[in-house]
Specification:
Number of helices: 7
Strand content: under 5%
Distance between the termini: 46 Å
Structural class: mainly alpha
Order of helices and strands: HHHHHHH
Number of domains: 2
Shape: flat
Oligomer: single chain
Largest sheet: none
């Protein structure tokens, strides 16, 4: 590990320890956030000198940030749709998966063929953001809940709609990107 990494790492860890002690007395969330960001900036600069294979820490930070944003977008959209249409059918999960499939199909082609983005940035968008945005695991659990409630028609419709619409949306996204 580079010497600079070890020196800055110790200082950063000490700063986080001090932040934990001071958090209650600081009170103002904005002051705490600014302090954490200054520590993180130091941390990123420090870790950027220590590479994980061919991908440096900037990639991992970008991937994690994109994943966090995708998860927040999924949750926000799912809640909003549930407020609009109720919770009797998992419209939010269906919408997120169809929209995510369309975006995945479009961006998989567009970012590579049109914008020629490097693999790292495509990974940040497709795996980070859209991987966290779409939610097949929630689809599975929603389907099981419908089945457990004896809602066989709804669960069958949900399975068919999810698979058919997501495949269609992905293909339409790809075709849209190819035509640009």
């Amino acid at each position: 590990m580079p010497e600079r990494f070890c020196e800055l790492s110790g200082a950063t860890h000490a700063a986080f320890d001090q932040l934990a002690v001071d958090a209650e007395t600081m009170g103002d969330a904005r002051v705490i956030a600014e302090y954490v960001l200054s520590i993180m900036k130091n941390c990123i600069q420090c870790h950027a000198t220590y590479r994980f294979g061919k991908l440096d820490m900037y990639f991992w930070v970008a991937l994690g940030t994109a994943g966090a944003l995708g998860a927040m977008a999924r949750y926000g959209l799912t809640v909003w749709i549930a407020q609009q249409f109720g919770r009797g059918f998992p419209w939010g999960t269906l919408t997120v998966n169809v929209l995510g499939s369309a975006l995945m199909g479009f961006l998989a082609v567009f970012l590579l063929d049109r914008l020629h983005w490097p693999v790292e940035w495509r990974t940040v968008v497709l795996t980070g953001f859209l991987g966290a945005f779409t939610t097949f695991s929630a689809f599975s659990v929603d389907t099981i809940y419908l089945m457990e409630k004896g809602e066989w028609l709804k669960s069958g419709a949900y399975i068919l709609a999810s698979v058919a619409l997501c495949l269609l949306a992905a293909r339409l996204g790809m075709l849209g990107a190819e035509r640009l």
